[in-house]
Every structure is written in C-alpha cells, then in structure tokens.
Amino acid sequence: MAKILVYIDNPTAELKRSSRELVSLAGALGEAVVASPGPFADSTAAELGARSVSTVYLPDSDALGGYLVGPKAAFLAEAAKASGAAAVLLENSFDGKEIAARLGIKLTAGVITDVVGIDEALTATKSVLAGSYTVQAKVTTPVAVFTVKANSVEISEPAGGSAPGSVTVPVPEATAGAARITGRTEKPASGRPDLGEARVVVAGGRGVDGDFGPVEELADALGGAVGASRAATDAGWIEHSAQIGQTGKTVSPQLYISAGISGAIQQKAGMQTAKVIVAVNKDAESPVFEIADFGVVGDLFQVLPQAAAEIRKRKGQA
Amino acid sequence: MDESTLKIVVLVKHVPDAQFDRHLSGPDSRTDRSESILSELDEYALEAALQLSEARGGEAAGNRVIALTMGPAGAANAVKKSLQIGAGEGVHLSDEALAGSDAAATSLALAAAIRHLGEVDLVLTGMASTDGETSLVPAQLAERLGLPQVTFASTLEVKDGTVTARRDGDSHSELIEAPLPALVSVTDQVNEPRYPNFKGIMAAKKKTITTLSLADIGVDAGSVGSAGSWTTVLAAQPRPPREQGVIITDEGDAGIKLADFLAARKLI
Ligand SMILES: Cc1cc2nc3c(=O)[nH]c(=O)nc-3n(C[C@H](O)[C@H](O)[C@H](O)COP(=O)(O)OP(=O)(O)OC[C@H]3O[C@@H](n4cnc5c(N)ncnc54)[C@H](O)[C@@H]3O)c2cc1C
Ligand SMILES: Nc1ncnc2c1ncn2[C@@H]1O[C@H](COP(=O)(O)O)[C@@H](O)[C@H]1O
Asked: B40 C-alpha to center of ligand 2: Å?
C-alpha cells in the first residue's frame, strides 16, 4: 500500500480538526504516516496511533520553529524521501501552501492547492475562479503534493492501534541566509472556533457601524466563529485575521450568516462555497441577496438579537 | 534619505477582470484572458517598490524599478500600466511555448528571466494572482533563485541590507527578517496603491518595454508550458448558479423566521 505523508506543524498542541481530517484522508488513500517539526505530546502520539498512523518522521534539529518556510520545506522533503510517500498532504493555510510550494520544487513534484477531495487515483477536486468552476486535476510527477481545505473530509473513527514508531531525518539545508522569525505577538484567544474550520460563521460588515455585539451574540448562540468584510477590518472594528474574502480567508462552512455586508465580488470570493447562506441587509438591492438561500431585508440590530434569543430558547438555553 | 540604492524587480500579472464573469475554455480548460487587467494585488507590490525607490532618491539617484510579466501578447498591457503608475523599465516574457504553464513551469521561466536581468536586490510580488490564486509562484521562485523568502508582508522596511516585515497569522503575528537580496510578497494591507496620473501616462510613452523569448533567457521550450507542467486539469464544470432563495422583509419577527429557517435546515 502506498504511503501518504501528512505534515502537522504544531506538535505540542492537541490535534487540530484539519489535522484529523488530513490523517483520515491519508488513511483512506493508503498507509498514513506523519512528519512534524518536533515530537508530539504523548496523548497526541497515542491518538495518531489510534488513527492508524504507523510512523512519525522528525527532524534532527530543534531550530525549525525559528525560521519561515524554507528550512521546514527542506525537512519535509527529506521526510518524503525517507518514507517513499506517493503523496504529501498539508493544510491549506498560507504556511501550508508555501511549504508545499517549495517542497514541490525540491521533490520535482506537482502541487495542487485548495483541494476539497482526492480519490484513489489521486485525482484532486478543487474550485477555481472564486468558486465559479469546479475542476478535477492531477499531478503528473511520481510524487504529488496537495494542500487540502478544512471541512472537506469526514473524520473517520479511530480504529485503535499502538503509538507510532518514530524516524529521525537530517535537516540538510544550512539555515544561514533564510528568513528568520525575530518576534512573535500572540493574539488574545476568542474562545470561539477557528474561523477557517468553523461549521458556522457569522460575519459583519460596514453595516455593524463599529458594534460587533449583535454578530458575536448570534455566533455564540450558534456556537460559530465571527468573520468580517474588509470594510469592517479596515475600520479597525475587528482584527484583520477575521477578514473573509479574496485577500482574507476562504471559508466553506455549513452555514454562513452575512450581516450588514453588501456582497462585493472580493467578499463573495471567500464565502460563496458555503452550504447555506443567510443574508441580513437593510438594502433590498444588495448583491448579497443574489446568492442567499434565506435573506432578510431589515436592520441587523433588530434581526440578529431576536434570532439569537430565539435560537437560545429552542436550544433550551434561554 | 536612505543609504544605498536598490534594483527592484516587481512581478506583475495580466489577469481576467474579476468584475466580469470569468470562464475556462478549450480542451485543457485554460482561463479565457480576453477581458484582462493588471492584477490588482500586484499594484500593492508595485507601490511598495516605488516607495522604497523614492525614499532613496528615486531613479535620479540610481534606483531601478523593473516591472516583469510573463504571458501572451496582451500581457504587455500589465507592464504598460505599471510604467504609467511609475515603474522605470518594463520586461515582457512572451513565447508560444509558455501557454498552459502551471506554477512550477511559471516559476521556472520567471526565475530564468530574473537571472537574465542581472543582480537584483529585491524581487517583489503580490500575495496571489487573482486568477490562479495559488500563492505558489513567490515561494517557488524563492526556492529556485535560492533567495530568502519573506511572504505575505503586511509591513515592509529595508535598511542596512536587511528586509524587515510583519506577517499576520491567525493566532499571532510575526516579525520576519532577511538579508538582501530577498524575495518579498506583500498583502493588500501594506500600502495604498496610487493611480496613474496624467504626467505618469505621458512619461510612460517614452519608456520602453523589452520583450524576451525563451531563447533569450536560455530556457528550453519543453521545460515550460503544458509539456513542462507537473499538474494537469482533467475536466472542469461551471458551478451551478445558487438557487434564488427566499427573501423576506422584516415585519418585526424576521429573527424568529430566521430561526425557523435554520431549524428546518437542521442547522440549530
Ligand atoms: C484588492 C482588493 C481586495 C479586497 N479584498 C476583500 C476581501 O478579502 N474581503 C472583503 O470583504 N472585501 C474585500 N475588498 C473590498 C470589497 O470590494 C468591498 O469594498 C467590501 O467587501 C465592502 O464591505 P461591506 O460590504 O462591509 O461594506 P459596504 O459595501 O459599504 O456595505 C455595507 C452594507 O451594510 C448594509 N447596512 C448598513 N446598515 C445596516 C443595518 N443597520 N442593518 C443591515 N444592513 C445594514 C448596507 O445596506 C450595505 O449593503 C477588496 C477590495 C480590493 C480592491
Ligand atoms: N505570469 C506571471 N507574470 C508575472 N508575475 C506573476 C505571474 N504569475 C504569478 N506572478 C506573481 O506571483 C504572484 C502570486 O501568483 P500565484 O502564485 O499565481 O497566486 C502574483 O501576485 C505575481 O506577482
């Protein structure tokens, strides 16, 4: 059975939903193996074993965390060679795509980004041109590299199994001259689900007029994440990392609720593959209504709190 | 004024205008490029280059900003627009054999074109092309050129031969530092791009665009285009338009109706 190598960037934390998805996908396509820039916590290693991961590849250096992309790609290339993997799977984040990009050159391997599905023949499905087409694409080189969007894969039940064995591979490239990370500022945790992975996203735009309260209240009633248009992030009402769209995040949740957002092409680029779209806007002519499954022409300051209260009531939380 | 002068190559791509419907066509599902413009995300890279040059006295002091594109004949328009906005020189890499290049083949050709331009201090790119949207090309170029890679910069400074940038992530933001020469991609947070003004449009008429072929840059036709690509598109389907949904006007109970809708769709 072909080996499928999954790259997991944050070994010290609990597995992210997207990492579980990648491991499930790898297991469906072949024998799942994992590469990581550092050793896993015992509980995480046990979970990987239970998810049928046979081997974990680790670097012989602990300096990778201090560098941007280049040395990580160099390590992953060694891990890919050592494992003989037919495919490498990474998450579809900025970092994931860039590590994939450099890995591709190092391995002479084709790279496909924004993947939402991969079949046994390693044919990938993705959407292009801001979601206006779905394409099937294939890598024509012996090794294939894919970055897979969150929420694309069913997480399989752990089948049980012992903790994976580990193999240490050398990090070849001198880190001299590579871009260094010289400072790091943590952002306060919101306690809400990660925007890129959330099943429900409630997003606010210029229409919230500086007050994200109603958006947050509805997001919390639904257990969702909070997003925003660029108008709202540019105004400084909410962090830039909440921006959805062409130059922000692309999300494909089960439910996207857009409030006080007009629906410009650059905003739609980030959300129009959501399963269900709800729009609340006081202007009936807003383009966002063209893609809404359910639209309310109304004032978000009335509609959102009422909806949040009703949802809490139905969930028995009122 | 800042110390030493800079030679900067800015990568600009000619892309279909996203304000119109965009299409894939032909047997290998290529992007239709008839209604194309300079990718708006590359305007941020150009602006960053111009600001770095101007802070050092501009062209008069010996700084150079070179706009480089790869693409069919029409792509020269992206370079022309860049010259109108303020780039001093333009280069258009154009060759039939380039058609159908994926990121690997594009980065191979662009890397050769950049080497052809001699020593450069900075290669500046946009964060993503608005058609390909892969963000693969900058990282692959850095790998091929052996340059340190500073990508998704939301701030950018160059001082004493060092690039400093901020990169905003989900849970944290990072400060990145690299020695020159380096490859930097910038986001739409980095600056506010200028528009071409009348003076710029007139000045651009006197600037030349150098056209390069694959032979000029010493690249074999078989290593680029569809033949040199490492990925291939098998099939493409237009996404069915979203069904027109139900639109109601709030009469005081729209929040309840919204909850009803979510419950009916089993989303609560
Ligand atoms: C290079 C580039 C990249 C971009 N990238 C992105 C991106 O990634 N994401 C993004 O979102 N945008 C992006 N944009 C910006 C985009 O073009 C729009 O300008 C932006 O999305 C508008 O945000 P908005 O809908 O919140 O504001 P507006 O267009 O001003 O819309 C506000 C809406 O709120 C409604 N409203 C006002 N008050 C209320 C109320 N009380 N109740 C209900 N509704 C109300 C109004 O009717 C209006 O429809 C980009 C632009 C460029 C040039
Ligand atoms: N054909 C091209 N010509 C010039 N620059 C390009 C080309 N393709 C990509 N680039 C540059 O690479 C960036 C990222 O593109 P991409 O990897 O396609 O998302 C763009 O913003 C451009 O700066």
From this structure: 11
Res B1: pLDDT: 46
* Secondary structure of chain B in HEC code, one letter for each residue: CCCCCCEEEEECCEEECCCCCCCEECCCCEECCCCEEECHHHHHHHHHHHHHHHCCCCHHHCCEEEEEEECCHHHHHHHHHHHHHCCCEEEEECCHHHCCCCHHHHHHHHHHHHHHCCCCCEEEEECCCCCCCCCHHHHHHHHHHCCCEEEEECEEEEECCEEEEEEECCCEEEEEEEECCEEEEECCCCCCCCCCCHHHHHHHCCCCEEEECHHHHCCCHHHCHHHHCCEEEEEEEECCCCCCCEEEECCCCHHHHHHHHHHHCCCC
Q: What domains are defined for chain B?
A: 7-228 (3.40.50.620)
What is the block-wise mean pLDDT of chain B (268 residues), using blocks of 10 residues?
83 86 76 82 97 96 97 95 97 96 96 97 93 87 95 96 91 92 96 95 95 98 96 91 89 98 95
**What's the complex ipTM?**
0.91
Q: Which residues numbered 260-279 in A keep a CB inside 8 Å of some CB on B?
A: 265-266, 269, 272, 276-278
pLDDT of residue B145: 96
Interface of A with B in 203-262 (CB under 8 A): 222, 240-241, 246-247, 254-255
The superfamily CATH assigns to domain A3-169 is HUPs (3.40.50.620)
Contact B143 A240 (CB under 8 A): no
Given this structure, which CATH class describes domain A200-314? alpha beta
pLDDT digits (tens, 9 = 90+) for A103-136: 999 999 999 999 999 999 999 999 888 778 899 9
Contact A295 B247 (CB under 8 A): yes
* A200-314 shares the fold of A3-169: yes
Domain extent listing, chain A: 3-169, 200-314
